[in-house]
Amino acid sequence: xxxxxxxxxxxxxxxxxxxxxxxxxxxxxxxxxxxxxxxxxxxxxxxxxxxxxxxxxxxxxxxxxxxxxxxxxxxxxxxxxxxxxxxxxxxxxxxxxxxxxxxxxxxxxxxxxxxxxxxxxxxxxxxxxxxxxxxxxxxxxxxxxxxxxxxxxxxxxxxxxxxxxxxxxxxxxxxxxxxxxxxxxxxxxxxxxxxxxxxxxxxxxxxxxxxxxxxxxxxxxxxxxxxxxxxxxxxxxxxxxxxxxxxxxxxxxxxxxxxxxxxxxxxxxxxxxxxxxxxxxxxxxxxxxxxxxxxxxxxxxxxxxxxxxxxxxxxxxxxxxxxxxxxxxxxxxxxxxxxxxxxxxxxxxxxxxxxxxxxxxxxxxxxxxxxxxxxxxxxx
Length: 380
Known about the structure:
- By secondary structure, the protein is of the alpha/beta class.
- It folds into two domains: 3-120 and 357-379, Enolase-like, domain 1 (2-Layer Sandwich); 126-346, TIM Barrel (Alpha-Beta Barrel).
- Helices cover 35% and strands 24% of the residues.
- The chain has 13 helices and 15 strands.
- Strands 5-6-7-8-9-10-11 form a seven-stranded parallel β-sheet.
- Helix 5 (146-159) crosses helix 6 (174-183) and helix 9 packs parallel to helix 11 (274-286).
- The longest helix has 19 residues, at 101-119.
């Protein structure tokens, strides 16, 4: 085991326009403010992570601006003063910081990437992944019309994606599910509400959706409401999938004990990084609950980390890990992530995340940058 002196942590905020607007129950996104972190050692080796916090606190409490402050003012001093012996310890060292899991997850991911590169192995193997190919689905935002939605679904089905998910919200739900299912009776199909409904007012809608042979209804109720999700799940044959409700392994354990879901969406940033994600995957696997990897409109850096996560044994359903070209005219990695005609992505063979960061593209998109000196020893 050699020791590594981490010399510097770099923060970059990028602004990237989406190829197409993406609309959910909580808003419409046309461009992404993205926070990229890089950790560098004394020999110049670097690892990259992506903070998936959004511009506004609508998906959860974190934003790009708050994450920047938390990383620079709180995470860096904690790491600098800790005797960290490996990437697997980062989650525990940052535990004194309450919440702020997207900020913590970005740093942890960058250190995992660096550690895998130093070990000379792909990140997915370094975290214990088993799958050499991952199954891919797509998430389709709310469209301006049913015809536009069906056109979008047709494009993704023709591209080979193995699962189609559509966003819904009150008033745009049952008729959308009905239209898609009528045209595509056999596809793997799910809906995602992003916590837009309540048990008191929308039970009839949930029961109507229950009739469309859905793979899952994702996060219909408020994030913290495991009790009402459990009540709802008992009344539906369709599995509920929890997303925003699961921020850590304890949340997953509580949800499983209450019977609040039958599927879990694991987002690397939402749960705070690989260590917590692996705990959730293990809990779910032991309970025979399938998991899959959700997306947050990531650049190629975050998407590459999602590929690594999706190789773990419990990820038995297609995730929202789609091609770079679905979102970006030009990604910030080389080569861009592509999906096969069978709806799969091959796990990379190069060390670390397996993709090179396009520095020129990164520089051209950077709107602000800060370097924070870091003195900590990581043994690898």
